[in-house]
Design a protein that fits this description.
about 180 residues, alpha+beta, two-stranded antiparallel sheet, 6 helices
């Protein structure tokens, strides 16, 4: 039996937002990765808190692509990468449960230390971004599940995407103090 233990790190006085680190990967998360994760989490929380202000313009529909681009404009240490997320999905057919890769078009943020910060994780209902380690023996199951693909970059880098990203960036600058 594998035991997974975690550390919960409160980074706000009101204890409204928490980040969870798994002990087995904690040694491969750098101080810079932790700092950037805190900053991205603050942005995502601020966007959620002010969601009614953002979505009042029905023409702006934010997704992982525009969110990552806006955050990387605000935090230039982070680089937006477009590609596929090769996670797994469950398939039940005739009572049989199987696992198979699920490749989807996705964008994420890459830290200078090669970790992935995913502010809009695929298939996860959460307000918290995901931190996938980029170093150590478990990296293939962390940042290794994020596969860069220039074809996806070309298909999502449109004028409309740049417009959404700049609008979201201006909003982030306004609400983050």
């Amino acid at each position: 039996m594998v035991e997974v233990s975690c550390i919960v790190v409160n980074f706000q006085r009101k204890n409204l937002t928490r980040m969870v680190y798994n002990h087995s990967t904690l040694t491969h998360v750098t101080k810079l990765d932790k700092h950037l994760m805190v900053e991205v989490t603050k942005i995502i929380k601020a966007l959620f808190d002010h969601n009614h202000s953002i979505t009042s313009d029905r023409r702006l529909n934010f997704d992982c692509h525009s969110i990552c681009r806006a955050i990387s404009l605000y935090l230039p240490a982070l680089v937006t990468i477009d590609g596929s997320y090769a996670g797994y999905k469950h398939i039940t057919r005739k009572g049989v449960l199987r696992m198979r890769p699920c490749y989807s078009r996705h964008s994420w943020l890459l830290t200078p230390d090669r970790a992935v910060i995913d502010p809009h994780p695929v298939g996860v209902i959460t307000l918290a971004p995901l931190l996938a380690i980029g170093q150590g023996k478990d990296a293939p199951f962390g940042s290794g599940l994020y596969i860069p693909d220039m074809r996806i970059h070309k298909s999502v880098s449109t004028r409309e995407m740049r417009k959404k990203s700049r609008a979201l960036f201006r909003f982030i600058k306004k609400v983050i103090t």
